[in-house]
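Protocol step 4 of 6: structure prediction from sequence.
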Amino acid sequence: MIPIGPLMIEHRLIERMIRVMQSKLESIREEKKADSDFIDTAVDFIRIYADRCHHGKEEDILFRDLAKKNISDEHKRIMRELIEEHKMGRNNVKKLVEAKEKYVRGDKGALEDIVSNMEILVKFYPKHIEKEDKHFFLPCMDYFNDAEKGAMLNEMREFDRRMIHDRYQKIVEGLE
């Protein structure tokens, strides 16, 4: 019963999407043309799956519970870095959306910003995931007893269950 199991499984899907984004990035460079539908799909994946679902569980559950523990200075430093990296990722996704919107409106110069921000994301995620997988998640499990791990795992499952309902409730509320 390790609550980081679901987080590491999510990493594998994020890695797959990043490989697809890398391939699309190469096509954009070669063709000097962006696929706005693909960018919308990639942004949706990153915002909802990688950030809201995955990073949400890290920040709202794992990091919250670790903050209550007497963790090493090294793990505190890594946790702060991970939080900052999450913010940086969100910022680059925002910039990618802005560049895509300019591009769709006819600003061909925005292609350079699309390429730049996609490149940042495809370079960022593999390093970020490696840091979490190899230098943070597993060692941090030693701070918790089995009951605490079980409680976190249950909370993560509930987080996933609630997330889709919360998302679509907000959509309807926004439309109303």
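Step 5 (inspection) to follow. The longest helix spans residues 36-67.
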